[in-house]
Amino acid sequence: MGLPGHRRTSGDKRRRLTHIALTENSMGTCPKCQKAVLPHRACAFCGTYRGRQVMKVEKRTAKKAS
Asked: Tens of pLDDT along 20-47?
C-alpha cells in the first residue's frame, strides 16, 4: 500500500483551494426592456436576443397560468 511521500503544508492546501472560490455572475442589461440578463442568453422577460424576437413570452406565460 502506498504512503504519501511528504506532508502537505498549509501553503500547498491554500494554493490548491484558490481555484475553488465562488465568482459573481456578470450580468448585462437587455437593450429592449433594461432588465438584468446573463450574457449570451435570451431575455426571459421580453424574449429578445441580439435585437431579434426569439421566444414568444406571452404564449409561455399563458401556458403556466392554465
From this structure: 888 888 999 999 999 999 999 999 999 9
Residue range of the domain that includes 31: 25-65
In a domain, 41, yes or no: yes
Task: Give domain status of residue 51, yes or no.
Answer: yes
Global pTM value: 0.55
Structural domain total, the chain = 1
d(CA 45, CA 56): 10
Report CA dihedral (15, 17, 19, 22) to the nearest 10 degrees.
Answer: -140
Q: DSSP string covering 3-62, please?
A: --SSPPPHHHHHHHHGGG-------EE-TTT--EE-TTS--TTT-EETTEE-S-HHHHHH
Does residue 5 form part of some domain? no
